[in-house]
Amino acid sequence: MEAITQTVMTWVKDNCMKDKADxxxxxxxxxxxxxxxxxxxxxxxxxxxxxxxxxxxxxxDMSPDNFKNATTVAELIVELKESA
Amino acid sequence: xxRERPSAVASDxxxxxxxxxxxxxxxxxxxxxxxxxxxxxxxxxxxxxAGKLRPLRRVRQSxxxxxxxxxxxxxxLMVNYTIYxxxxxxxxxxxxDFRKVVTVEGEEHLKRYYGERGIVYCNSHYGAGKLAxxxxxxxxxxxxxxxRVDVFSDLPKPAGCGTIQSIELGKKxxxxxxxxxxxxxxKALKKKALMHVAAxxxxxxxxxxxxxxxxxxxxxxxFADFAIATDSVVLPVISKLYEDGRIHLIIAEVIDPxxxxxxxxxxxxxxxxxxxxxxxxxxxxxTEFVFKNDLALYNQLEGQxxxxxxxxxxxx
Lengths: 84, 316
Known about the structure:
Chain A is mainly α. Helices cover 57% and strands 0% of the residues of chain A. In chain A, helix 1 (2-16) packs across helix 3 and helix 1 (2-16) packs across helix 4. Chain A is globular, with a radius of gyration of 12 Å. By secondary structure, chain B is α/β, with parallel strands linked by helices. Chain B is 44% helix and 16% strand. Chain B has 14 helices and nine strands. Chain B has helices spanning 18-24, 29-41, 43-48, 54-62, 70-81, 83-91, 95-101, 107-113, 132-138, 175-190, 222-229, 264-285, 292-300, 308-315; strands spanning 102-105, 119-123, 143-147, 164-168, 194-198, 206-212, 215-220, 233-241, 247-251. In chain B, the strands form two sheets. Chain B has a seven-stranded mixed beta sheet with strand order 1-9-8-2-5-3-4. A two-stranded antiparallel sheet of chain B has the order 6-7. In chain B, helix 2 packs across helix 5 (70-81). The interface between A and B is medium-sized, with 13 and 15 residues.
């Protein structure tokens, strides 16, 4: 799961933090509190992890609890892979 | 989920005057239109609504436009106070009467892409704008409609009518609710759906700044982002509501991201510019068709616009 968390963090750093150099991204940094990701970024992240990990994220998975930081995203991916 | 009370500007009109709406709902379209025309088209009736005209008068003054005529006043009042009744009454019209009341210009643009590509059906807070999804459904198209609240699910469904699937944003944006709606939108567009949105709103994550009728304002970035991300086309649409109840739907030529040059950010900017240029022309040609809340929001923007003739030159 740590590997997945790091992959998510790398994606966020590469795609969403170009003008947020002052924000330190950790596995538990809140995406909402720091406004690192806007709505479209969240959708793009969903698409990325679906392709990367071959999981199917549906509407019911789109909750603040699942997407609040890199760790919770990784937990969601693990849960989806285990239930597949 | 906790939701804050909506602001005065964002309050839902469906929660007000519910009894009045229930009483007038059965009015047939022709009779209702004639009655409203008598009520709102005469000087006494218009005097009763004099206070409601302030946002419109202020916009026209700032743009150097002449004083309102009685006809323009009637149209403004029709647009802002008779829409929800019209939504139901239009759906009860026979096909023959519907085609008499509603004329369409540019439907070939919609037909060309319907089912072939996703279409961001880019409506504005203008004229019979709230009717646009219902009009498209009556014309036989299936579509999604992104709105604050669902006003379509209890509409009559005449034979041959397309379906409207609502994607609700809610009265107040909670992050999870908004994300779910956007998720559904993207998924539907990828499946080549027709997606109705009001693109000139003031809510949502702001995109770049633009000059709109001489004043700087932001536009929500989503509609252009979605078009680019899902390889969909953008189809601006506007509808004019006349004092006698006639509606003229104008579907513009498509804005296709495939035909735009540059990075995605540059394409987004071009989509915004083309849409705004088109919208400004319609605002200038018919300020009386603009929703009162949008006029009020424009009035609140910083800056002093140029006169209408200069703005018209900029829009050309």
